[in-house]
Amino acid sequence: MEQRKERICNGCGRPVIFPQEEGLAVTKTWGYFSRKDGERHSFFLCEDCYDKLAAGFAVPVEIREETELL
Fold this sequence. Notes:
- By secondary structure, this protein is an alpha+beta fold.
- Helix content is about 15%, strand content about 30%.
- A hairpin with a 6-residue loop joins strand 1 and strand 2.
């Protein structure tokens, strides 16, 4: 039986249910010389919010085709 997991998108607040949907999870631990020294920041974006964020980048996201998906 397939186990359903859910995460909330930090961008729009919508629940994202796995494995039917995917999203982007980011975790960053800030180091020395940053204004956030020693803090760990995490967020999750649904695919729609990721697309909106990436569309606003000055330098486009690098995209490469993967032929084997897990």
